[in-house]
Design a protein that fits this description.
- The chain is mostly helical and 409 residues long.
- The protein contains 17 helices and no strands.
- The protein is globular and about 60 Å long.
- The N and C termini lie far apart (41 Å).
Length: 409
């Protein structure tokens, strides 16, 4: 099997970056089709929205456990099998007889995408070191945002021209192309295999799950992504039902939010030299301010322009916060990159699926005011996480033996 090293990593890096947007694409490409799928399967919006939640649960649980498999048995074969099953699941989904078969297949897709993405994130830690590694890691959320930017934009036109099934045809072709490239040019990047020994695995989990810096970073990933995901769950119904716009408009709106996420990632990348607590404080204040203004505006007026402007600013802040803390998570445990990548991503996706769906269902988000309230809830929690970080740092400065929140704080 071909070994990937820093000297021959060019095409492997291209394949890895091509895989990173897959989770965002699988989530967002069919957002403009959610109302149409509700009609096609004669079910409620909340049941159709579960297809997003099932995918998030699948990718979350998988990332939580797949890291040990990747660290012990390698990245390449696992990734190839997962891509193949992902292609098959999209073909099966096109012919699904009811929404519950769709939801089960979406769960399987989460398992497949989680396996691929964790391995490709660990690829960079396997191959690169130092500032070059940090440079690549800071591009993760920026490259990932290509999915939310392009997928719903394309999905709106696919829905308008061919129906909801066309979105899953696109996903099958995209993953199939990556699979062919992987078979032709890919290889194994893992240099030092970890022994698949349950006591040792349990100890590695214990080390990470009791590391205050790692867990604080994971908490911020969950809160940042939850603020994003409430838009994905509710925007198609707000735009197409409440505001009476077409699926193409939903696609453009999601494209704009993906661009906002990218802007946030670029801002975070430009601020690598600043401390975590300082950056976090600015982001929390901005999100709280925007959510409050959005809520006040919704009392007097609610239209597409005010909705998208406020959502854009929230997504910029959330994208910056996610980029900052995800980079920290992946550089804390370089000898167990697969586990660190999977544990951070798994907790983020799994808890996000529960938190975002729970808030959307509890508030019954149908308009700008309810969405603003959901944003306000997560902004307040992000501010509380900032206070937790300050408390941890204060204990550290006082000489109490406690883990640092994260490197560079």
């Amino acid at each position: 099997m071909r070994k990937i090293t820093e000297e021959n990593a060019g095409f492997g890096t291209f394949i890895a970056f091509s895989c990173l947007p897959l989770s965002g694409m699988t989530t967002d490409v069919y957002l403009p089709s959610l109302p149409a799928m509700s009609s096609a399967f004669h079910t409620s919006p909340s049941v159709t929205q579960l297809s997003l939640t099932f995918f998030m649960i699948g990718i979350g649980v998988t990332q939580f456990f797949i890291g040990n498999v990747l660290d012990s048995f390698g990245r390449y074969r696992t990734g190839v099998v997962a891509l193949f099953l992902f292609v098959l699941s999209n073909v099966a989904l096109i012919y699904s007889p009811n929404i519950w078969v769709v939801n089960v297949l979406r769960l399987l897709q989460g398992v497949c995408v989680g396996s691929v993405v964790v391995g490709k994130r660990a690829f960079f830690v396997d191959v690169f070191q130092g500032d070059r590694l940090k440079g690549f890691l800071s591009w993760f959320t920026i490259v990932w945002s290509a999915g939310p930017i392009l997928a719903p934009f394309l999905g709106g036109y696919l829905q308008e021209g061919f129906g909801w099934q066309a979105n899953f045809v696109f996903l099958a072709f995209y993953a199939g192309a990556i699979l062919v490239l992987e078979l032709l040019f890919g290889g194994e990047s893992l240099r030092h295999r970890q022994r698949f020994h349950l006591p040792a695995i349990a100890e590695r989990y214990r080390t990470m799950l009791t590391h205050s810096g790692f867990m604080l970073s994971v908490l911020n990933l969950v809160l940042a992504y939850s603020a994003i995901f409430v838009f994905s769950l509710s925007a198609p119904f707000i735009i197409e039902h409440t505001l009476q716009q077409s699926p193409v408009v939903t696609g453009y709106a999601a494209l704009l939010m993906g661009f906002a996420w990218m802007v946030g990632g670029l801002i975070a990348k430009s601020q690598l030299h600043r401390g975590l607590i300082q950056k976090h404080a600015v982001i929390a204040a901005e999100m709280l301010g925007v959510a409050i203004v959005m809520l006040l505006i919704s009392v007097g007026t609610s239209n597409l322009v005010t909705l998208l402007l406020c959502c854009f600013l929230v997504h910029v802040a959330a994208g910056a916060l996610y980029n900052i803390y995800f980079t920290e998570c992946l550089t804390m445990f370089p000898k167990n990159a697969g586990l660190a990548s999977g544990l951070a991503g798994g907790c983020a996706f799994l808890l996000t699926s529960v938190a975002s769906y729970g808030v959307v269902a509890a508030i019954d988000v149908r308009g700008q005011g309810q969405l603003a309230l959901a944003y306000l809830i997560f902004a307040a929690l992000i501010a509380a996480a900032w206070m937790m970080g300050r408390m941890i740092m204060a204990r550290r400065w006082a000489g109490t033996p406690v883990e640092a929140p994260a490197k560079g704080a």
